[in-house]
Design a protein that fits this description.
The structure holds two protein chains of two kinds. Chain A is an all-beta fold. Chain A is built from no helices and eleven strands. Chain A starts with a strand and ends with a strand. About 4% of the residues of chain B have low confidence. The chains are: A mainly beta, B mainly beta. The interface between A and B is medium-sized, with 30 and 28 residues.
């Protein structure tokens, strides 16, 4: 498809289990972002990829969170030993820019994965 | 670190009136300031962008202003319609590729309700 896709759309898991969230960015977009949005809250930045490398991981809340990107395309966000406070919508976005000559960073968002930790 | 404040969590206006949403920030002035619309259960959608050297930008019924002295952006929707009801997010964009680090910082959003 033409847009950013995420899977699964909904995930319910038990506390202590690991989960993997997937993001397929728009083809050709070099930059990829993960955000978390809790109910009624703004977007919380988690991690940014430029190609396959992650120059900015400053938003990852703990070492239970990790992410990787392969082939400059698909990215997975993994949460180990999930806790109830991890419940949120996890949004992925991609943008075309990321070079020294780049201009603005209009981001294209996926529909999100709603994670519920029981 | 950058702090972004958007006016009241919710804003109710009458159909046909102009809605004005505010985005205030502290610390550095970004290269760009973006506005997004988010509908329930969906990801944000880009609307408009204004550069630090621009005072005003328009697109159809939308108008954005950017005052780097006040560290504020205003987002206006003229002749508002019920279909404009959504949450509007401002985002500060450093732009470019500064030292291998690039981040867009979002505000918490203002929920706009246009009443018929």
């Amino acid at each position: 498809g033409a847009g950013v896709s995420q899977s699964p759309s909904n995930k319910v898991t038990e506390k202590g289990k690991d989960v993997e969230l997937r993001c397929d960015p728009i083809s050709g977009h070099t930059a990829l972002y993960w955000y978390r949005q809790s109910l009624g809250q703004g977007l919380e930045f988690l991690i940014y990829f430029q190609g396959n490398s992650a120059p900015d991981k400053s938003g990852l809340p703990s070492d239970r969170f990790s992410a990787e990107r392969t082939g400059g395309s698909v990215s997975t966000l993994t949460i180990q030993r999930t806790q109830q406070e991890d419940s949120a919508v996890y949004l992925c976005a991609s943008s075309q820019v990321g070079t020294a000559d780049s201009s603005y960073n209009e981001q294209f968002f996926g529909p999100g994965t709603r994670l519920t930790v029981l | 670190s950058q702090k972004i404040e958007q006016n009241s969590e919710a804003l109710n206006i009458q159909e046909g009136k102009t809605a004005t949403l505010t985005c205030n920030y502290t610390n550095y002035s970004p290269a760009y300031l973006q506005w997004y619309r988010q509908d329930p259960g969906r990801g944000p959608v880009f609307l408009l962008l204004i550069r630090e050297n621009e005072k005003e930008k328009r697109k159809e019924r939308l108008k954005v202003t950017f005052d780097t002295t006040l560290k504020q952006s205003l987002f206006h929707i003229t002749a508002s319609q019920p279909a404009d009801s959504a949450t509007y997010l401002c985002a500060l964009d450093r732009g470019g590729y500064s030292g291998g680090y690039q981040k867009v910082t979002f505000g918490t959003g203002t929920k706009l309700q246009v009443i018929p």
